[in-house]
Amino acid sequence: TDSSRARSGGPDNGDGDGEVRVKPVVAVVGRPNVGKSSLVNRIIGRREAVVEDVPGVTRDRVAYDASWQGREFTLVDTGGWETGAAGLAAMVARQAEYAAQTADVILFVVDATVGITDADEAVTRVLRATNRPVVLAANKVDGGLQEADALELWNLGVGEPFPVSALHGRGSGDLLDAVIAALPETAEPEEEDDDLPPRVALVGRPNVGKSSLLNRLAGEDRVVVDSVAGTTRDAVDEIIELGGRRWTFIDTAGIRRRFRALQGADYYATVRTSSALERAEVAVVLMDVSEPLAEQDIRVVEQVVEAGRALVLAFNKWDTLDEDRRYYLEKEIDRQLSRVSWAPRVNISAKTGRHMERLVPALDTSLEGWNTRIPTGRLNGWLKELVAATPPPVRGGKQPKILFATQADARPPQFVLFTTGFLEDNYRRFIERRLREDFGFEGSPIKLTMRIRE
Ligand code: GDP
């Protein structure tokens, strides 16, 4: 449960990122041919293998999603880490070392029919030196005849051997019970209620047309002017039907109250925006194309990314655009919004109603990207190929090794890379770019963090 050394800092991460909740990791170690992969397959029930739909990523996976008795964990097959170190015992010991550094629980597999070998002893020495819980699997106990062989493995001194047959499934329930019992306590993931209408925050600096757009969407030309602007009232959310579905627009009272009436309302608007983002799933950042993009526009976009919300960029007042302005606008977008080039764009006019119908597809795209989850097996198959083709740059004479990765969360997608060294910003950006190319995530920020065990 050594998470204190986790470091964060993906391309999109601010410092206030906090600790990422990662499922517990169970690493399967043991010398070649003891049946590690068979046992892994037995435990995951080949669930991930059957949903494979990306050609070329089935080979060399190292990590999988697994669960037993309702407890979820990441199962890591260290067989995928073989690096051709000198000598079998040395190689297996090295794997065990990595495993001990990254995993919460070690599942140590020994072939009961062969008995204790030098390599098994090398692994045992490594495991003893760590404080990780070890569960010992005595594999290939296919029938009663091998039970006695299993008992001999007490001599390893790492506790009770659980007789199993990865081939036939025998004993795996008791083994998994022991694994689960050894897992650290973790907070249960929050329930997500998919039945409620998606929550949209309409944000942007004063005068870009937020209340005009809201009125247009709500199908009413009523302009609510509040004579006591600036007095705080409870935020009011409105449910608006768009594209045949319901959407909750957050803090519409705040939008309709027209904060632009207030001078020096900048700070207040920022606070208002962050509290709306807090409750939103997706943000529409509205910008006014009749004026140059302002620092304040960029700041709102950054607020959305930092809050980890899905993002749609809406360029309003398109009716005012002439050729000349349009040319400069594209330049401004390229220059100032390149950081969010993944966000869908709509060019609209709240005044004329231009392209209102494009808003819903853009919202859907962003929410889909935001909700995307990549199964661990698939992610690691992909990552392994990526790293083989473009390894992380050497740093301080050492090449950091990426052992495996998991997607710790969605909404927004958060990835945790388990590594043996620090990965440069550039390399993490490279991974993010490739994740986007191969898996989408359109309209969503992505967070990449590292868990470094040197
Ligand atoms: P808010 O402060 O972001 O809520 O902005 P408002 O909705 O109050 O709009 C500010 C001003 O821009 C008002 O005078 C609107 O009439 C005008 N406006 C809003 N949308 C459009 C548009 O699409 N085209 C044009 N030409 N003017 C717009």
Q: Outline of this structure?
A:
Belongs to the TRAFAC class TrmE-Era-EngA-EngB-Septin-like GTPase superfamily. EngA (Der) GTPase family. With 454 residues, this protein is α/β, with parallel strands linked by helices. 34% of the residues lie in helices and 19% in strands.
What does this structure look like?
There is one protein chain. This protein is α/β, with parallel strands linked by helices and 454 residues long. Helices cover 34% and strands 19% of the residues. The protein has 14 helices and 16 strands. The strands form three sheets. A six-stranded mixed sheet has the order 3-4-2-5-6-7, sandwiched between helices. Strands 9-10-8-11-12-13 form a six-stranded mixed sheet, sandwiched between helices. Helix 3 packs parallel to helix 4 (118-128) and helix 9 (266-279) runs parallel beside helix 10 (295-307). The longest helix is centred in the first third of the chain and has 15 residues, at 88-102. The radius of gyration is 27 Å and the shape is elongated. The two termini are 16 Å apart. The relative contact order is 0.14.
